[in-house]
Amino acid sequence: MNDGIEKEGEYGMKKVFRMEDLECANCAAKMEEAIGRLDGVQSASVSFMAQKLTISVEDHLFDAVLEQAQKIVSKIEPDCVIVR
Questions:
Q1: Cys bridge to 48: 10, 13, 28, 65, which one at CB 3.0-4.6 A?
Q2: Closest listed residue to residue 8, CA positions, set 45, 38, 47, 42
Q3: Between residues 15 and 9, which one has the greater pLDDT?
């Protein structure tokens, strides 16, 4: 379940997701950088302290980007999950 949805104009959507089993601040920084480089991502922030992912993505790409983001997260920290 996501923590909040906030529309950002007609070109994108901002959502906040809880993350489970994020155990490393350095890993969170790596996730943030890699997710931020995905096509369609306008901004991405991974907070180790809050255990949250905040992401702004073009509406039509949101599901695909979230799927790619989970693959990135799992590659960096295999037990970490983005809670939808």
A1: 28
A2: 42
A3: 15
* Global pTM exceeds 0.70: yes
- Which residue range is the domain that position 16 belongs to? 2-83
Cα–Cα distance for residue pair 46/39, rounded to 1 Å: 17
Structural domain count of the chain: 1
Identify the bridge partners of residue 4 per DSSP, sorted by sequence position.
16
Q: CB of 46 within 8 A of CB of 32?
A: yes
CATH number where 10 lies: 3.30.70.100
What is residue 38's DSSP assignment? S
pLDDT band at 12 (very low <50, low <70, confident <90, very high): confident
pLDDT in tens, 15-36: 999 999 999 999 999 999 999 9
